[in-house]
């Protein structure tokens, strides 16, 4: 029982400490653009969280997963002629 509690606590801590990356996207000017991008980016494997608002894509990779900016850009490009112009990381 103690092991189960320890594993659960560890998993919760990893989720709480997950890195969040925010990408600013050029060319995304409306909610229709955001929906198109969200449909591509948020279906990517390895994401814990994914949200898209006008001008921004916010992702948190699952523990142990790495997703490069190039991979995010490739998914964004499937939705149209959009380009990542800046990114920032936070915990």
Automatic annotation (TrEMBL):
Pfam families: HMA
Ribosomal protein among keywords: no
Signal sequence, start to end: 1-18
Classification via CDD domains: HMA
Domain of life (superkingdom): Bacteria
Recorded GO MF terms: metal ion binding
Key words of the record: Metal-binding, Signal
HMA domain location: 19-84
Keyword Flavoprotein appears in the UniProt entry: no
Protein name: Putative cation-transporting ATPase
């Amino acid at each position: 029982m103690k092991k189960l509690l320890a594993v659960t606590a560890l998993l919760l801590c990893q989720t709480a400490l997950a890195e969040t990356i925010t990408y600013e996207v050029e060319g995304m000017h409306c909610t229709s653009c955001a929906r198109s991008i969200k449909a591509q980016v948020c279906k990517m494997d390895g994401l814990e969280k994914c949200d898209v608002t006008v001008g921004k894509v916010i992702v948190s990779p699952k523990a142990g997963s790495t997703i490069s900016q190039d991979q995010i850009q490739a998914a964004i490009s499937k939705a149209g002629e959009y380009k990542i112009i800046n990114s920032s990381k936070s915990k």
